[in-house]
Amino acid sequence: MLDKRTPAALPAPFAKYSHSVIVPAGTRMLFCSGQLGIAADATVPEGSEAQADLCFQAIGHLLADAGMGFADIVRINAFVTDRSEMAGYMASRDRHMPTPPPASTLMIVSGFTRPEFKVEIEIVAAKKD
Question: Which molecular-function annotations from GO does this UniProt entry contain (predicted)?
């Protein structure tokens, strides 16, 4: 069982995330590459929220392939290309994350491999068998 923590000695998180997560010994780990907001037909939606939804859809497939689910996510690293893209990403993230949520970092970057991409998301997950 993952132990997701927000200690009373720290300020509350700015959004839906936990400050830390303890992964018990003997737990199986999954490390996912960054997922981009591209559909199965290779189209890329314009908005960051729609792109993030596709990222989380891909992450869901990776988790399922490993016999895991969103509740098994330990950490999210997300990247957006502009501060204005944060709200769309965060709305999608908040719909997909369980309570309590995993640890999370969000960074603003100058861009990705193609200019139409606005969001990239990678995760680490863990599950005790």
Answer: deaminase activity
